[in-house]
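Customer escalation, tier 2.

The customer says the design service returned an amino acid string that "doesn't look like it belongs to this structure." They asked us to rerun it and document both sides in this ticket. The original structure tokens are below, unchanged.
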């Protein structure tokens, strides 16, 4: 999902965001600035059946994780941090910071029950 730092080695999430930012610039250009697109992101992992905000350092997390609620048919992670990222560079910085907070074993190999989810929200 993450891949390497070079353009050719980037993973799915960085490639997707690169495409989103290109599309945002095109929409803004095509509408002569009448349409503005704002991008924000949340990033979480599901580890041992608990949801953790990756923008929060592990030492500040509650052991039970974040609560999940149903909001009119949409699943919501209560208390999940959402950060604006105006440029691809800002996204990459936030993404790298959040990845430091992922749960990994001593060998830096992800736990077998670990799922990491990126939620790129609020494309307005």
């Amino acid at each position: 999902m993450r891949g390497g730092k070079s353009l050719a080695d980037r993973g799915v999430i960085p490639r997707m965001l690169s495409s989103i930012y290109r599309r945002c610039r095109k929409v803004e250009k095509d509408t002569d600035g009448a349409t503005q697109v704002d991008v924000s992101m949340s990033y979480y992992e599901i580890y041992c059946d608990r949801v953790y905000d990756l923008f929060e350092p592990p030492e500040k997390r509650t052991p039970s994780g974040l609560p999940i609620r149903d909001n009119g048919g949409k699943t919501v992670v209560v208390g999940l941090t959402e950060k604006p990222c105006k440029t691809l560079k800002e996204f990459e910085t936030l993404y790298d910071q959040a990845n430091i907070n992922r749960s990994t074993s001593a060998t830096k190999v992800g736990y077998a029950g670990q799922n990491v989810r990126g939620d790129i929200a609020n494309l307005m």
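Tier 2 assessment: The sequence is consistent with the input. The two ends are 25 Å apart (CA to CA). The first helix runs from residue 12 to 30. Sent an explanation to the customer and offered a walkthrough call.
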